[in-house]
Amino acid sequence: MVRGPAQRQVRPARVYQTVTTLMEHRIKPRLAVQQPVWYKVVESIPPSEILTRPFPPQHRQPNPRARKASRLFQPQKLVYKEDELRKKFYTDHPWELARPRMIIEMDGKDALRCDWSKGLRQPGMPLSGECVVQRQMYLMENVPGITEDTAYDQVRKEFYKLRQEEEIERRIAQEEARMVGAYFGQTFNQVGMKLEDQQFERWKRWATREIEKIQGEQTAAYSSFDASEDPEAADLDVDSLREDLESTANIPPA
Amino acid sequence: MIIREFGLRQGRNALAAPLRRGQQCLRALSTETSGTPVATADPAVEAALQTNPENPTVPSLFARTAKPTRRRPVAPDTTKADWETAQQMRHNLRNVGAQVEHRYSPSDDVTLELLMASQAHMGHHASVWNPANARYIYGIRQGIHIISLEQTAAHLRRAARVVEEVAYHGGLILFVGTRPGQTQIVTQAARLAKACHLFTKWTPGTITNSDKILPGIPVEIVNEHDQPIGGFNQHLMDRRALVPDLVVCLNPLENFTMLRECSQANVPTIGIVDTNTEPTWVTYAIPANDDSLRCLAVIGSVLGRAGEAGQKRRMEDAKNGKVTWDTPSEIKQFMEIQQKRARWAKRAADEEAAASDTSGGLNGNSSGGGATKDSEVFDESMQELQMEVDAANADDVSPQLRKMARRTD
Fold this sequence. Notes:
The complex is a heterodimer of chains A (254) and B (409).
Chain A: H1 15-24, H2 39-44, H3 82-92, H4 129-142, H5 148-179, H6 188-221, H7 232-249
Chain B: H1 2-14, H2 22-29, H3 43-51, H4 60-65, H5 79-92, H6 112-117, E1 122-125, E2 137-141, E3 144-147, H7 149-168, E4 173-176, H8 183-193, E5 196-198, H9 210-213, E6 219-222, H10 233-237, E7 246-249, H11 256-264, E8 269-273, E9 284-287, H12 293-319, H13 329-363, H14 368-393, E10 400-403
Parallel strand pairs in B: 4-5, 4-7, 7-8, 8-9
Antiparallel strand pairs in B: 1-3, 2-3, 6-10
Helix pairs in contact in B: 7-12, 8-12, 13-14
Family (chain B): Belongs to the universal ribosomal protein uS2 family.
Pfam families (chain B): Ribosomal_S2
InterPro entries (chain B): Ribosomal_uS2, Ribosomal_uS2_bac/mit/plastid, Ribosomal_uS2_CS, Ribosomal_uS2_flav_dom_sf
């Protein structure tokens, strides 16, 4: 990405003033500067004021003990009540994060179509951890005397029940499909094991080749020596490799 | 360990085996093909030499290196049959499967919810912010700056007003979006607003050095009904390239050069400013997420629709006899010169006619009719010329330059 120099520009915001000056004070006396098409437009709709540092929107209570102002003109962190609930739920159920989730909305009003007094299932929204959080929020705000933990327990159990229903439905659908002749390929675990086995086989072939190479080099280097004078260095190397190979691949010892 | 390895390596070098393929190397290096008694280690070649002494002997070098080519079994060409099978299959399966239907139906009004759903509020990481954008930032969420959608909506409304008014006053608008994926957004906005678009690289100097970069770009002169007017060929031949009256830039970060040129040429600009962009590069900033194509599509469509509304208003006013723009000064000047020339030509013709009249009177009165006829013919031609100039100069039919063809890079 090509970035321009990050420097302030003065002229763009002052186009109107520049052209006004040009029109009033001719550089060449005979040459009149014509009023541009946009002149009246920019006059009636001036650019907004920028480059003044405003007091940012405040999202936290000011600390009464603070003696001096800190980060007075910097944007503040946005913290919502649901954050803690969300964190707790996903700490307890980390695999819920592995489920695919649709985050694209049409008009952005999906949240208005949900009524969390009705339960966890909402129109146009699959069951997820977000349902639990929203339902828990609803209970905490609307049921008198309910604590956070009680609400969490209640909603959690509703959630487990619905997940169990989903699981049973899926299993039955699978069985029905198998009965009428459907077949499903390998599972993800099976595919993973197969790929792993292929890699092991590759490694076995490579290791066998390496052993042969080293042995060939040894015999070539010491062909004129007696067998009793073979150095043990190379033997050690080959032996260790062969041990590795035998232990992993169950090759019959040579 | 190290010493052992050293011994292995050095011993191997010291006790290197003699050249294993001595015979082959010798044969490969020898260039003679005579029947010198070189010991041939290849029994096949030797046998061939012994069996056919009459045949021209193949050079041993060639015989050794040339390998018999392995022919693949020729498979029958089933392309046609495969294609027909596929067509048949497609025909059989044409009604099988899900019916994909378009569910996206955008509403007319742009709401804050729509802006949020199109991810207009997401800025960049808080560490790469430009503090000049502090006015547009609502807060920090998970490390990134969140743009205030109220600010976005307000600035978008302002920018849309500018686009509409410039289109109403007959200005030339240019939509620029040079990132991949912005082509459709830019072209659609330009089509709606009857504007120009650019989705490839901005050639540096297109405004400031337009005499070199854009020579001979076709330009036509139209009246307020957007109908082309003739009679300005001489003017168009030595006219400089047009400069846009408003530039809308979807990615100011990559188009710094263009924005700089616009500011030098006093062209107002509208740009989408993310939290890491410098907002002073553009005249009208729209704080929004410039990395989301959905957000850019929303903003581009809003601006395009605004331009469309402005053009529509302009055409309606033109029908009612109201022209919303002034004739450019160069064209005015050209027309004045043409009028002057016509006046001079008329005066010269009058003088000439008067002279011929007096001479005809001296010679006789028979040629008087011919002279009047000549003057009548000239008057007619002059009237035509005058009408043309008047038509071009009149208030209700004012010529306006319009770019005919878009830039083709």
